[in-house]
Design brief:
With 496 residues, the protein is an alpha/beta fold. The chain folds into 2 domains: 3-230, Rossmann fold (3-Layer(aba) Sandwich); 246-495, Rossmann fold (3-Layer(aba) Sandwich). It has helices at residues 12-18, 38-51, 65-74, 104-123, 133-140, 143-158, 177-182, 252-257, 278-291, 305-314, 320-324, 340-354, 364-369, 377-390, 490-495, and strands at residues 6-7, 22-23, 27-32, 56-60, 83-86, 127-131, 163-168, 185-192, 200-208, 217-223, 226-230, 246-247, 262-263, 267-273, 296-300, 328-332, 358-362, 394-401, 420-429, 432-442, 451-457, 460-467, 470-471, 479-480. A 9-stranded mixed β-sheet has the order 5-4-6-7-3-8-9-10-11, sandwiched between helices. The protein has a 9-stranded mixed β-sheet with strand order 16-15-17-18-14-19-20-21-22, sandwiched between helices. Strands 1-2 form a two-stranded antiparallel ribbon. The chain is elongated and about 95 Å long.
């Protein structure tokens, strides 16, 4: 089916899901509870037609013209050039016109449909929105009469080649599956009320005859300016000419530990207890890449921009100019306000629009809180990592393990999704609490199997020589039994 056979919905994300838009000349059902954005979607559909010089008709059976204009004004839209029709049966409240032989519902519905047909014939629109079918259902009063009127309406539209969206607020007691069988396509809108945080909205294409569409649930948000849809990410053909070379960390010792560095198109998981240096190691790698002219994107769930800049400054990294030059882009993410689909779309835009080659997600613990159901986290991440790998992006994932001392454990095991795993630990030696770093997994290439001391100071990231005589590093309670000297602080050097 060619693009000329499709009518754009006015939403880029929804068009992507539908493979180009709604099929022209067909009747589509948009269903959802009140508050899911049906009226907003319908307005975007007719406004998209108006902008393409198509005649568009918006038929309201429950809202006045003033109410529709108020909705449009809230989004910054003008309804100029649109045909608006407030559909009521003529004089149905007049005492002289009250019926005594026929049921009022039969006469009122018949009059309403006649007015609707006359208005469509007068305007001859290419696009129509009917808002909403629940008013027709109330007038019909029984399912058989309602189904017959909808079928007659569909036959009437078939002779006019108009693309129609019929909105239904699903206020009836049960799902109207008979209506599903009549229409060409069905888009279902849902609103999920979580125990904490903002409500989440998602849509699903329940049916679309003869059209290949992207199935499953897709997150969307209602913003000033209309609905923004975030299509569920699926793996596609990788772009041509993607680089797969090594990105250096800025520390020759860390690069040696990693077997030369981390390769583009792979992901690395940095795991360890809070305060063990995971974020600082990832920031150091992103900083080194940005200094070489690369673009890095950092998505911070747990820290503010000011906090990141202050921490970087304490490590001798001045990231302010790199942020100003857009070589480092820091996004503060509130997991209570952003859906997983929106976050995925944000990361993908950073790759396509900024050509980001390093992506840091700090941390997966915050990302986990953004998921309504924990069991879907690995699937969502799998799709995101596949996309980033195909585009030659080095992805650094940070996960904090529960506990500072004693046995520690991760909230979820994602090591199998990562191409490399860096383990960071605290240990005791020479009367001080110190940090250790080791590489426990690397799919591509070799790596050291040693344990090195990690020190964070104003000189930046310092990695010591390989340490021997460790015990218990994998259990989370490492003990150093050797006598090798540790990394010395600048103050120690001064006093020696």
């Amino acid at each position: 089916m060619s693009g000329r056979d499709r009518a754009s919905s006015g939403l880029v994300g929804l068009d992507e899901i539908l493979g180009g838009g709604f099929v022209r000349g067909r009747l589509h059902l948009i269903e959802g509870r009140p508050g899911t954005g049906k009226t907003t979607l319908g307005m975007q559909f007719v406004l998209a037609g108006r902008d393409q010089a198509e005649t568009a008709l918006y038929v309201s059976m429950s809202e006045t013209r003033g109410e529709l204009e108020a909705v449009a004004a809230a989004h910054g839209w003008s309804l100029a050039g649109l045909e608006l029709c407030k559909l009521v049966s003529p004089d149905i409240d007049g005492a002289a016109n009250r019926q005594t032989v026929f049921r009022p519902s039969e006469v009122e519905l018949g009059e309403t449909m006649r007015v609707l047909f006359n208005e469509i014939e007068r305007v001859d629109p290419a696009r129509i929105v009917i808002d909403s079918l629940s008013e027709m259902r109330l007038l019909a009063q029984n399912p058989l009469r309602y189904r017959r009127e909808i079928f007659a309406f569909k036959q009437f539209l078939a002779r006019r080649s108009a693309t129609v969206l019929a909105l239904d607020d699903m206020t009836s007691n049960s799902s109207d599956l008979q209506l599903h069988s009549i229409v060409h396509g069905v888009v279902s809108l849902e609103e999920l009320a979580l125990d904490y945080g903002a409500e989440r909205r998602r849509l699903r294409i329940t049916k679309m005859r003869g059209v290949k569409f992207r199935g499953g649930y897709h997150d969307y948000a209602i913003r000033t300016g209309g609905l923004e849809v975030f299509p569920r990410l699926v793996s596609a053909e990788p772009p041509q000419g993607v680089r797969k070379d090594i990105i250096l960390s800025g520390s020759s010792e860390l690069d040696a530990l990693l077997g030369g560095g981390l390769r583009r198109g792979t992901s690395a998981l940095l795991v360890g207890p809070a305060g063990s240096g995971k974020s600082s190691v990832a920031l150091s790698i992103a900083y080194a890449a940005a200094k070489q002219g690369e673009c890095a994107s950092l998505y911070a769930f747990d820290e503010s921009l000011d906090g990141i800049q202050e921490r970087a400054s304490g490590l001798g990294m001045n990231i302010g100019p790199l942020i100003t030059s857009n070589h480092i882009d820091v996004k503060e993410i509130s997991p209570a306000e952003m859906s997983p689909g929106e976050f995925t779309a944000l990361v993908c835009r950073g790759v396509t629009e900024r050509n980001a080659s390093v992506v840091v997600i700090d941390s997966l613990n915050g990302y986990l809180q953004a998921m309504p159901q924990e069991r879907f986290l690995s699937l969502e991440l799998h799709q995101l990592l596949s996309y980033l790998n195909q585009h030659g992006v080095l992805t650094l994932l940070i996960m904090a393990q529960h506990g500072l001392i004693g046995a520690v454990e991760a909230p979820i095991d994602l090591s199998y999704l990562s191409d490399a795993v860096l383990l960071l630990r605290f240990f005791e030696a020479q009367g001080k609490v110190r940090k250790a770093i080791s590489v426990v997994k690397k799919r591509i290439g070799t790596h050291e199997d040693t344990i090195r001391e990690l020190r964070l100071s104003s000189q930046g990231l310092q990695i010591g020589e390989p340490l021997t005589d460790f015990q218990g590093i994998m259990s989370g309670i490492p003990t150093y039994l050797g006598s090798q000297s540790m990394i010395r602080a600048a103050s120690d050097d001064t006093h020696s």
